[in-house]
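Annotated sample (chain length 117).
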Amino acid sequence: QVQLVESGGGSVQAGESLRLSCAASGIIFRFYAMHWYRQAPGKQREVVAGITSRGDTNYSDSVKGRFTISRDNAKNTVYLVMNSLKPEDTAVYYCRASQLAWGQEYWGRGTQVTVSS
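Output written by the structure step:
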């Protein structure tokens, strides 16, 4: 059974930092690209950052320079370090694992991040 479990969310003040974690089980983690998405109330889910199986990263313009995605294949975990948080970063953050060659993708259940001004 595949599971992606996010953790590390919480309520912070603007300018503070958080580190999200997503622990994967049931997949050969090192072969999967990993992604962070977020969904704010009343808005569509949007991609925040991604990291390939080789470690190449990409970011949305709204978080570039503030957020950092990384992975630890030994721990089957992907991280998202979020610095200089803004109220507009408030959302539920989701982890997604994808392996296009196998046509597989999996989602976590999300973790809430709330940033107050």
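Annotation: The chain has no helices and eleven strands.
Annotation: The mean pLDDT is 97.
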